[in-house]
Amino acid sequence: MIVPGSTLGLLGGGQLGRMFTMAAQRMGYRVVVLDPGLHSPAGDVADEHIRADYADPAALARLARACAAVTTEFENVPAEALGFLARHCGVSPTAESVAVAQDRIREKEFLCAAGFPVAPFVVVQDGAALASAEAVELYPGILKVSRFGYDGKGQVPVANPAHALAAWHSLGSEPCVLEKRLALATEVSVVVARDVAGQVVTFPVAENQHRHGILDISIVPARVSASLAAEACRTGIAVAEALDYRGVLCVEMFVLEDGRLVVNEIAPRPHNSGHYSLDACITSQFEQQVRVLAQLPLGDPGLHCPAVMVNLLGDLWARGEPDWRLVLEHPRAKLHLYGKREARPRRKMGHYTVLADRVESALDTALAIKARLEQTCLPARRPGPEVAAKHEGGLG
């Protein structure tokens, strides 16, 4: 057990690291962040910020000397860095687990080998694979780059082999996965925490809605049957056990129109769809990450009440700083801003969570806040040709 007062380390300086750092500090730990940025959400609140590349041997050695244990806040940290640190201090999750989840090809092959249902796919190492007999059966599909794709980046819907070949070149001719597009009823996710002794807990199932490939809204508990929610939790636990995972991870799943559950992706870290846990759960996903890293008993992930989480993207800053009174005038709305110094379109700048006694009430309030923010913060849309012509009388 690593007792409060000790120092924990973190690879990555983003908002997930910021929330981990704040959870650790609240529990009495010091936190050292290694991140190459001059300013970062986690580095700005940490006790110490080592500004260096994640593969810098001297910086990694310094982090290992300072910390009793180290974790990561994003899956694209070099697995070799985690392996280096593991020779000198505690590390969670392991380099092996992260290496599987950070590579879409390895992830799909792992899930298939372990018997988990996934969308039909083929591995694309060259352009010829996109016209193979196996690939032709998958159109229309989605071409996904194997590494460094997130929040809709590195993913292109494709209709046929010619379209897919052009998309593959646009992605740098990198190794990819071509997946068949499935008819979905909804998307859900489960955040799982598993400790070094193999004890495991799951957070309530979240129902997720995306916009432009980026998570927009998470609804908790998910509006699915109790049996489906239980199956999703069992699947999340089984994935963690198959990976021999130590830490907090998220398993994203598709619910097909026929009710079947299909595993989509694994995120070897706390997840955007688990942010509701900061306000709605007895133990947040970030406190749970601290507990696993410090080898403390797992906390209770139980839900206080239904909740809806809404992402705040940089688009809302188009007219300057949004008027946060639109959120805070609701007494059961909780605002979380990440301290990022530059707002850019589709960049995650924060989120808010609405709590209520009924999930429908939480959703109604969350959507009402969202509509007002977008109305007052986004630039007025210019009418398209048809709308303009209609106003001019050209279409009757």
Please tell me about this protein's structure.
- The structure is a single chain.
- The protein has 13 helices and 18 strands.
- By secondary structure, it is α+β, with helices and mostly antiparallel strands.
- The chain has three domains: 85 residues, Rossmann fold; 61 residues, ATP-grasp fold, A domain (Dna Ligase, domain 1), CATH 3.30.1490; 194 residues, ATP-grasp fold, B domain (D-amino Acid Aminotransferase, Chain A, domain 1).
- The strands form three sheets. Strands 10, 11, 12, 13, 14, 15, 16, 17 and 18 form a nine-stranded antiparallel sheet that branches. Strands 3-2-1-4-5 form a five-stranded parallel sheet, sandwiched between helices. Strands 6-9-7-8 form a four-stranded antiparallel sheet, sandwiched between helices.
- Helix 3 runs antiparallel to helix 4.
Main traits of this protein?
Rossmann fold, globular, 5-stranded parallel sheet, alpha+beta, disordered C terminus, Dna Ligase, domain 1, D-amino Acid Aminotransferase, Chain A, domain 1, 3 domains, 396 residues
Structural class by sheet pairing and helices: alpha+beta
CATH fold category name of the largest domain? D-amino Acid Aminotransferase, Chain A, domain 1
Poorly predicted ranges: 385-396
Number of strands: 18
CATH superfamily of the largest domain: ATP-grasp fold, B domain
* Fraction of residues in β-strands: 25-35%
Percentage of residues assigned to helices? 25-40%
**Radius of gyration over C-alpha positions, nearest whole angstrom:** 22 Å
